[in-house]
Write a structure and sequence with these properties.
mainly beta, 3-stranded mixed β-sheet
């Protein structure tokens, strides 16, 4: 995968990671996730989730949700 890739994993789907990958953004069931490392409980990732990930690989996400939201009225 390209480091500019946005990964979208829908409900009921899982990404099988056999190798480490780096991507720009990660969406799980439509929700943008934070930057960091993601994977299954078999991986060394910070964020472990067996619902959306399988395997021992790690998905490194470089961009998460934006910072402060400003509302102007």
């Amino acid at each position: 995968l390209s480091t500019a890739t946005t990964v979208l994993i829908a409900s009921g789907a899982a990404m099988n990671l056999d190798v480490n990958q780096t991507v720009d953004k990660l969406y799980l069931n439509g929700a943008l996730q934070s930057a960091g490392t993601w994977g299954s409980t078999s991986s060394g990732a910070e964020n472990k989730n067996n619902t959306y990930f399988a395997g021992t690989g790690i998905l490194t996400v470089s961009t998460g949700p934006g910072g402060t939201l400003f509302k102007f009225r």
